[in-house]
Amino acid sequence: MAIVLLLGMTIAPLGQGQIPQFLAGGVLLILGLSIFLLGAELSMVPFGQLVGSALTRKRSFALMLAASFAIGFAITVAEPDVQVLATQVAEIMPGMDKGPLLLVIAVGVGLFLLVGTGRIIMQIPLRHLLAGFYLALFGICSLADSGFVGVAFDAGGATTGPVTVPFIMAIGVGVAAAGRGKAGADDSFGLVGLASIGPVAAVAAFGLAFGGGLTGTAAGPDAPAVQSVFDAFASILPHIMLEISLALLPLLVMFLIFQIVLLRLPAERVKRMIFGLVYTYIGLVAFMTGVSGGFSPVGKSLGFALGTYAETALIPVGFLLGSVVVCAEPAVWILTRQIEEISGGHIQRKIMFAALSLSIAAAVVLGMLRVVTGMSIWFALVPGYALALILTRFCPPLFTAIAFDSGGVASGPMATTFILSLTLGASAACDGNPATDAFGMIAMIAMAPLITIQFLGMIFKRLKKRQRQLKNAPERKNET
Fold first, then answer.
1. How far apart are CA 58 and CA 260, in angstroms?
2. Which residues, in sequence order, are CB contacts of 214 under 8 Å at separation 6+?
3. Are 202 and 104 in contact (CB under 8 A)?
4. Measured in Å, how far apart are the chain's first and last C-alpha atoms?
5. Cα 144 vs. chain centroid, distance in angstroms?
6. Whose CA, among 172, 225, 377, 462, lies 20 to 30 Å from 427?
7. Kind and range of the H or E run holding 312
8. Helix, strand, coil shares of the chain as percentages rounded to 5?
9. How far is CA 60 from each of CA 63, 178, 256, rounded to the nearest angstrom?
10. Angle formed by the axes of helices 397-410 and 330-342, to 10°?
11. Per-residue exposure over 314-334, b if at least 16 CB sit within 10 Å of its own CB, e if not
12. Which residue did the predictor score with more confidence, 480 or 28?
């Protein structure tokens, strides 16, 4: 927020009333995400673990697969990042409705969550599935119109947001623990990574069925607001409240069905989870109000102003914003602590933050280069994913699973609500086609951790090997 204020008061002046609007939107976004995360801890995380464990104990493979699909579909519809992305796509691309796109993305997540839970039960190596599915994925995307490719890969990054990640990871932990006990702990990772493949394939297939190409409008941002800051948010609040109610309704229905048929939790536990869902609702309403009323519009205006000032200014600004956005993503803090614990302190949190910060900064720069030069998204995606898949051969399996899970961690609320909006505004200033030049930015950010964390895993593997050699050296000397 400080960086945006600095730019807005210097080289990229914002419109009348937009700075107070941005500050108010930022406060709402922070409060909303905080309340939402509290609700997720009270309701979705324990619910996911309980459902995963209960379904596994039933020993019904068909029931497990059907429940996985239903859960994946319901939580994706409730995911705020997906809501934001679908809204932005509908605004930019004439003829593309938000509703069908949401349903297509949700179906994709449901199908691949089904695949992921089946993998844990059948103990199939993750890297084999990743290699096969990504090869098939690139085959499908090569047939789709270029206007759908960026949106498809952005959908894969957006689905793994603050609702989906804790819920899916909780299911993975529950299934792995119930199926194999402590021995299955490593299998709990990778479920998010597989689930994020589904939306890419689903949107690309939707593009093939939709027919024709998508051309985004390159119009500049809306005119400066003339209404008060209060009116700017109050006018959109009723619509957002209704939208979030409809989005969370499938999740509530699913909870009630599982409670009656499968879980049968005590009344006190149910009451706690219901309170958690209420917190989730309040948090999502505040979050989406802050995004729609302040964060996204100002992001577009700032991108347009920077592109108008100097196209080359987008590159250093992109690097700066990319390097700090990782610190603003709540899930990144969880991820870095998790890896520090798994590596026994060998890979420290500050090293993880530095590596992720640099890689995501490079990803945002790559995205801005596409805006400035009109470079095809294939020149970024093909080498990047090829390297990520090659590294799975040399990286420890646990780190490969964490890497593909963390692709969605980096592309969270900040990337979807602000960085993508900034890119859309910059594309308009550069007279580009946002469908092919701007969409794909989330995909760049989601791709960066796949490479970075696997490299860290290889370093960890080498450190462990060296540690064993040093430990065995005195024993060999005594034997001699």
1. 15
2. 93, 95, 96, 145, 147, 148, 151, 207, 435
3. yes
4. 64
5. 23
6. 225
7. none
8. 85, 0, 15
9. 5, 13, 20
10. 170
11. bbebbbebbbebbebbbbbee
12. 28
Distance of alpha carbon 191 from alpha carbon 194, whole angstroms: 5
Backbone angles phi, psi at 381, to 5 degrees: -70, -45
3-class secondary structure per residue, 266-306: CHHHHHHHHHHHHHHHHHHHHHHHHHHHHHHHHHHHHHHHH
In one-letter notation, the amino acid at residue 30 is I
Residue range 266-272: average pLDDT?
A: 90
CA distances from 83 to 103, 195, 402 (A): 11, 17, 25
pLDDT at 227 over 70: no
What is d(CA 79, CA 69) in angstroms, rounded to the nearest whole number?
16
Domain-by-domain residue ranges, the chain?
Answer: 23-463
Q: pLDDT tens digits, residue range 142-181?
A: 888 777 888 888 988 888 776 777 677 777 777 776 655 5
User: Could you give the C-alpha distances from 185 to 173, 177, 178, 195, in angstroms and in order?
Assistant: 7, 7, 10, 18
One-letter amino acid for residue 347 of the chain: I
Tokens of 196: 């994020």
Q: Which residues contact 158 (CB under 8 A, 6 or more apart)?
A: 79, 81, 82, 84, 85, 199, 411, 416, 442
- Could you tell me how far CA 51 lies from the centroid of its own chain? 23
pLDDT digits (tens, 9 = 90+) for 338-375: 667 766 776 778 888 888 888 899 999 999 999 998 88
To the nearest 10 degrees (0 to 180), the angle between helices 237-258 and 45-58 is 30
Q: Residue 235, exposed/middle/buried by CB under 10 A (0-12, 13-18, 19+)?
A: exposed
Q: Which amino acid is present at 253?
A: V
For the question of whether the overall pTM of this predicted structure is more than 0.85, the answer is no
Q: What residue has token string 């879980």?
A: 263
Take residue 25 and report the two structure tokens written for it.
């939107």
Q: What is the mean pLDDT of residues 182-186?
A: 51
Helix and strand counts by DSSP (H, E) for the chain: 24, 0
Token pair belonging to 327: 């610190």
Q: How many residues does the chain have?
A: 480
Closest to 464 in 3D by CA, of 312, 343, 314? 343
- Distance CA(358)–CA(381), nearest Å, equals 18
Q: What CA–CA distance (Å, rounded) separates 171 from 47?
A: 8
Q: Indicate the SS3 state at residue 431.
A: coil
